[in-house]
Amino acid sequence: MHPVLATVLQRLGLGLLTLFFVSIIIFSAISFLPGDFGEQVLGQTALPETVEAFRRELGLDQPAWKRYLQWIGGVMQGDFGTSFSGRSSSGVDASRSVVELIGPRLWNTLFLAGVTAIVAVPLSLFLGITAALKRNSLYDRSVNAVTLTTISFPEFFLAYLLIVFLAGVFPTLANVTPEMELGERLSKVALPALTMTLVIIAHMMRMTRAAIINLLASPYIEMAQLKGASKTTVILKHALPNAWAPIATVIAFNLAYLVVGVVVVEVVFVYPGIGQLMVDSVSARDIPVAQACALIFAATYILLNLLADIIGIVTNPRLLHPR
Predict the structure, then answer these.
(1) How far is CA 308 from each of CA 87, 254, 286, rounded to the nearest angstrom?
(2) How far apart are CA 255 and CA 199, in angstroms?
(3) How many CA atoms does the CB half-sphere of 197 hold within 13 Å?
(4) What residue spans define the domains of the chain?
């Protein structure tokens, strides 16, 4: 078997194993949350017998290991269960499936992350490459200072600053709906996307700059310069292809953050994404929805990191051309 294929399969196996252990942690952590859904619906004055009967109806009276096996078995079949929301003490069950609740919210989060990535990734690569070309210049120092300043602010503080200064230009509430046209939707997500862009751009820009500068000291780069190659040719043709591994890793980390770390931004701008849904489900002790949101976040993070590993592997000349 080719070394690249063997290494990729090994990474995929480790990713699945990691996701399995993460699912156990998610289930355990949410099970240990204080409070009880039955008591929250029925009220603190409800009789213990009534609460126990309600818990039995929801399946919360079963042992933890049995509930976990039922949950993970359903997840492997694409069934995340049924939301607790909509259930009442009167026996009325107006609950919806978790997939039905998460589907539109996940699409909204992916749309926001996609818009941010389209802006942030090319901009950070451009700033990183140009800063490396003009190392220690005023431009390099200015770019580093601005990006480090933006990353130093917490997301919610940066979001509020943008609301204060750009409230008259862009909507401050990102309350998108499925019926919206693309232009109106882009206008609504402008401030959340700008907030996340300012937060993640420093990581990607500085990693790109560091990777390029490190390669510029290599002997083959010096040889290309001695042959008369221009700086642009040296960077784009010789340095950048060999710098993809670290750059892809930091881009994958930040793309994972765009999906996983949007909770604060979605809450500030009241954006109907999966992060806002997770906060609401934890507050309401809606266990199936909270577990599904956490598992989606974990799977996204693991998948994007696996993708970064695979890109680093397939761009490694030692693996592509083994002796």
Answers:
(1) 42, 11, 34
(2) 12
(3) 20
(4) 1-96+287-323, 112-283
Q: For residue 97, what is the DSSP state?
A: B
Radius of gyration in angstroms for the set of CA atoms belonging to the chain, rounded to a whole number: 24
Q: What's the CATH code, domain 112-283?
A: 1.10.3720
Q: Which tokens hold the place of 248?
A: 């892809």
The CA-CA-CA angle for residues 165, 170, 174, to 5°, reads 115
Cα 79 from Cα 157, distance rounded (Å) = 38
| Tokens linked to 134 | 């003009």
User: Is the four-CA dihedral 250, 254, 259, 261 of positive or negative sign?
Assistant: positive
Q: Mind listing the pLDDT tens digit of every residue in the chain (323 residues)?
A: 666 677 778 888 888 898 899 999 988 888 777 666 666 666 666 667 777 777 777 777 788 888 888 888 888 888 888 877 755 544 444 567 888 888 888 898 889 988 998 999 899 888 988 888 888 889 989 988 888 888 888 888 888 888 888 888 888 888 888 888 888 888 888 999 999 888 888 888 888 888 888 877 778 777 877 777 777 777 777 777 777 777 777 887 788 888 777 788 888 888 888 888 888 888 777 888 888 888 988 888 888 888 877 777 776 655 555 55
Cβ atoms of 171 and 187 within 8 Å: the answer is yes
Q: For residue 281, what are its two tokens?
A: 């489900």
Spatial CB neighbours of 319, under 8 Å, sequence gap ≥ 6? 3, 4, 7, 313
Task: Read off the tokens for 179.
Answer: 């019926």
Rounded to whole angstroms, how far apart are CA atoms 320 and 248? Answer: 18
Q: Is the pTM of this model over 0.90?
A: no
From residue 305, alpha-carbon distances to 242, 246, 252 in Å are: 19, 12, 6
